[in-house]
Design brief:
This protein has 109 residues and is an alpha+beta fold. The protein is 18% helix and 42% strand. The strands form 2 sheets. Strands 4-5-2-3-9-8 form a 6-stranded mixed β-sheet.
Length: 109
């Protein structure tokens, strides 16, 4: 069984802000797609609801949901929101990733 994910308070705050601006529920969906410079890439979306087979973690009333297939690749990850001179972005600290890339949005297993 894959480990649950963690949404940091900084990421939860950003999701809540975005959801409020878009008048949507504060549910962040993390999924993994083939592609990117290292084989897989992370995809973030606001979700309208939690699906029955999603893994759900919650921080400050914001939910982070992941489908079962993606969970196999990102279980145990920490999802953070980082602001720097290069811009602001959600970042995934994935213990399963054997390789990454400079952009931080793709990984290899």
């Amino acid at each position: 069984m894959a480990q649950a994910l963690v949404l940091t308070p900084a990421a939860a705050k950003r999701v809540a802000w975005i959801a409020e601006k878009q008048a949507k529920p504060a549910i962040l969906r993390l999924s993994v797609e083939g592609g990117g410079c290292s084989g897989f890439q992370y995809k973030f979306d606001l979700a309208p609801s939690v699906e029955g087979d999603d893994s759900v973690s919650e921080t400050d009333s914001v939910k982070l949901v992941v489908d079962p297939v993606s969970l196999d690749l990102v279980g145990g990850s920490i999802v953070d929101f980082v602001e720097s001179l290069g811009g602001a972005a959600f970042r995934v600290e994935n213990p399963n990733a054997a390789a990454g890339c400079g952009c931080g949005s793709s990984f290899g297993i």
